[in-house]
Specification:
Layout (H helix, E strand, L loop, with lengths): L4 E6 L3 E3 L4 E10 L8 E7 L14 E13 L2 E15 L13
Length: 102
């Protein structure tokens, strides 16, 4: 299934781990007219952090994600990473006060 997503948060690029891997987190929200919206937090890792260049908050994108569950120290974790991002339209603000002349 393909959905259109609105970017609601773009984190800073971080360097993590012993191998100094680059990682950036992005939060997206499904574009819908429904009252209750849902979103996903995903990471760009290693060379994929370049996919975020040119992206801004409120841009509409289509993103291809990988989902993986891992176990560490007896706990299970979900990992959601992106491998492709396509910008569909420029920033669209939900903040209508920005449009008002007063």
């Amino acid at each position: 299934m393909n959905y259109l997503w609105k970017i609601t948060k773009i984190g800073n690029i971080e360097t993590v781990g012993k191998n100094e891997m680059k990682r950036q987190s992005i939060v997206i929200e499904k574009v819908t007219d429904k009252e209750y919206k849902w979103g996903i937090l995903f990471d760009l890792i290693k060379d994929k952090v370049t996919l975020s260049s040119g992206l801004n908050i409120w841009d509409i994108i289509e993103v291809s994600l990988n989902f993986k569950a891992t176990e560490y120290n007896g706990r299970d974790y979900n990992n959601v990473t992106a491998w492709k991002i396509e910008k569909k339209s420029e920033a669209v603000s939900d903040n209508f006060s920005e449009w008002l002349p007063f």
